[in-house]
Amino acid sequence: MNIKEMNINQIEKLAQEIRTQLIDVVSKNGGHLAPNLGVVELTLALHKVFDSPKDKILFDVGHQSYVHKIVTGRDKEFSTLRTRGGVGPFLNPEESEHDAFISGHAGSGLSAASGIAAANPDSKVIVVVGDASIANGTSLEALNDIGGRFRNLIILLNDNEMSIGENVGSLSRFFSKLLVSKTYMNLKDEVRTLVRKAKIGKRVGGVLKRAEHSVKQFFAPMSICEDLGFKFLGVIDGHDSNELIETFEKAKIMEGPILIHVKTQKGKGYSFAEKNQEKFHGISPFDVQTGNVRKGSSSYSQIFGEKICQMGEKDKDIYAISAAMVKGTGLVNFFEKFPERSHNVGIAEGHAVTFAGGLAISGKKPYVAIYSTFLQRAYSQLIHDISLQNLPVRFIVDRAGIVGEDGKTHQGVYDISYFLSIEGFTVIAPTTCRELEEALEISRNHTNGPMAIRIPRSTCYDIDGDKPLEFGKWKEMEKGKKNLYIATGSMLNELMVVKDELCKRGIGGTIVSAAFISPLDENYLVDNVKNYDNIFVLEEAYDKNSFGTSILEFLNDRGLYKKVYKISLESAKIPHGKRDDLLFENGLRGSKLVDRIEGCINANK
Ligand SMILES: Cc1ncc(C[n+]2csc(CCOP(=O)(O)OP(=O)(O)O)c2C)c(N)n1
Ligand SMILES: CC(=O)[C@@H](O)[C@H](O)COP(=O)(O)O
Ligand SMILES: [Mg+2]
User: Fold this and answer.
1) What number is the ipTM of this complex?
2) 583 lies in the same domain as 526
3) Could you give the CA distance from residue 302 to residue 304 in angstroms, rounded to a whole number?
4) Is 277 in the pocket of ligand 1 (CB under 6 A)?
């Protein structure tokens, strides 16, 4: 039955069925469970009142758009969520006409929605924004622009008092204050009614008006919204379908921009997610009965987290900075042990970078741990605030390479390209866990400019008897003829796995472990490339302005004309699916990697 024809009982029943479906599918495929459990009633009420796709419904980040997907024609395929070719993790206009704009990064919702509102004056445009994402710099720029304009725009502040973990910052405190505004609304209405009904002398009316004024002063935060040019409705119970529908009906006939403050509970309806909202924000497959996730081996993020704690113990100048990803980047222990040297700046990557610049210029040793995809947001700060002053800020670029199920908005495929385009960065992609620890040791006393250490979203890999990492030096792991394989980061492991197959096919060669992407090991190249017919450069990154490109340019500049094959990602738009499958599909793993290398050699014969 169409949701528009449902009565409140039917909607409430549907909400429960959808909750069961969410828990079932996410327990199998992994995904953003708690955010979606929190917006079930809210999303159903939106679709009851508004007419998608004529009216445009957007979700900032879009990690909470599963219910929207289910009620807009993707119910049957929902079991394929986040799998290759299946329903995607975020909003995607290529997936459905009901997805008004792509999403995945926090803070783009308000800007996109206001643009859509400007272009579609006959449609209502509704954008759902979380209490953490609304404090993002881009959101604030948009709010500044939206206030007092965009009559068809409705902003739904989904306030669950959580980011992925604890929500931080003064704006988050401001929104908590707004919670009192329900009392304020009632009070204000009562005072207004009194003034209207009283029909009494000016004097009493004046007193009541002043009373209204002081109530307003007392509950100032809400009045600020009105002063900023937004009609304010709230605070609404985000799990009360009746109240939601009534409010949305009201908003539908009002002139905007309207800000509706909805209070929801992250994880609502699944006890484990209600109790541990951070764990269930984004979770890998789990057991529905116990809420337990299968324990895996250590990740590179964990190794970073352990090492930075050891280093922070000895070196009191070490600071750790996170942009709302404390757990994901492995920084939980450091934040607990050294709160005075830990800064979670919220979803504010640009600010995180420049803040670290401020620490570095004051002689501190900042470590900024940010996912590769989110650091894209701070490209300008990397240039203007870090590179131009050659500041020794250390960047731990997490989730570098293919991340998997989070898909094209989250793949960390651009960081090598952007770091190599900025002057002065040392760029390291450790090939093993031990090299990550060694790179971190090197970084501690590296004062000659900024440094980026990129780590993949994968479990640890180590090689017995591997030689220690030296600044700017590559290592030969295997000696062979004709072909020179230079592998950085995660690609060393991929190469080692297929080396026997390469030999079997008669295309074995020398294998070089190249953690240093910049500076290149120029001496190694000059001394060795002449001995080989083919040079293969392997990296889990986008092909343009890549490690391979920089080797190619270097050899060309030196007149060392060799055939260099870039074994990298030919497209940066990598869809969602399992990381290993995507590596395979893109010719960076297993037999596809071997075929690709063989194909390069055959094509050049
Ligand atoms: C630019 C950017 N930085 C970081 C993230 C990672 N991230 C995804 S959701 C999220 C928290 C969002 O909190 P909120 O907006 O309150 O939504 P909720 O999950 O609580 O519904 C973060 C930090 C992101 N998607 N985009
Ligand atoms: C929606 C979002 O941006 C994050 O929740 C992200 O999905 C986290 O990724 P990890 O699971 O790799 O930490
Ligand atoms: Mg939130």
Assistant:
1) 0.99
2) yes
3) 5
4) no
